[in-house]
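note to self: dont lose this again. the chain is below, predicted strucutre after it. 381 aa total, dont forget to put it in the shared folder this time
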Amino acid sequence: MGLKELYKGTKLIETIENYALAEEVNSLNENISNDENFWFSNDEEFWRNVITDPTKYWNQKIDLYDFVVSDWVARVPGLYWTSSSEQIRQHKKEDIALKSKQWIEFYPPGKSKKVMGGVGTLLLPPTDEGKILLSVSAGCNASTGIPLLCFPEVYDHLKIKQGDCVIIRGAKWLPMDMHWASKFASTKDIPRGYLVIDSIDKIRVLNRNYPVAYHPFSLMEYEYQDSLFYDFVYVTADSKVKNVNSEIEHFFKEYAKKEGRNGEYLLNPNIVSPIFESRYSCPSELSSTSEKAKLNLLYERIRKTYFKDQSVEVLMIKLPQYYQSSVSVRTLAKKIGLNVSLLVEDSAVNMSFQLIDLCIKKEIVENLVDRLTVDYPQIFI
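---
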């Protein structure tokens, strides 16, 4: 066990907390814009610019050309394009369970690397007003795409479907009124927004029936060598495959039983019509008082699995190597929401030990680890 296990435990908790927010799609329309339209030719160009300078693009008009529609939206849109995600997605030979010319199947730890690096999508229901959250991608990949909020009159009039190749002109990039879980630095600073398609002159269908890749995912609790583990699971689905939902269901059922795992899925990616059994079928199920109590117990099991003594000991060695002054340790404490007066002035090494001890006592090790992935992602790679 080491820093990678600390990171995985952190991302498991982050994913559950952000899943609980997935259906919150109300916007903050400030009606501030200029006459300039920003044009983007691909997913990466859009996200690199928006993540680097979020305030520049809020409430501004965006143009996209030759992007393909998907019904599925990335679990945290833009996460795929953050600076650390590409490194996190890199797999090793030992992560591969099966391989052919056409596909690769990973063991659970290998799949976790991909989902932690931004692979994974959700299918969300319409809002109460009938608005539909979709995504568009120049690369026909929903995990890398850009969210669209499409009004029902536009969706119905143009008969927009998954696989449509479209042009978008003058669609405003609006912020949602609820950000990603604030205690996780790796996602809270990713702008949570969508392009609003509220009239038919903002979108034009060029062609139809393009193939789209999307990635239903979940968290699996499973047994291995008499121990309990947690890992991400996903499958790459092709919208052109016949009976694709049946294929997805079959994969998840078989994967949970493989190699005697006896796995149970915790989250369902298809919130419209769940396609396999899971402990929670939609985000709203996580919001009741009784379920929050159960979630706290789940978080405690995850911490016991991944935040073990030997992992914390490695963190105690690594932390002072990157935060080499008492000022930097205090700044780190402030960033994760700790009262810096709880730290006694000392050497950077001893103050690092104090900080880790406080995080353990307050059960916020995941906040600390997530902050480190933003400041120094190389620690975990």
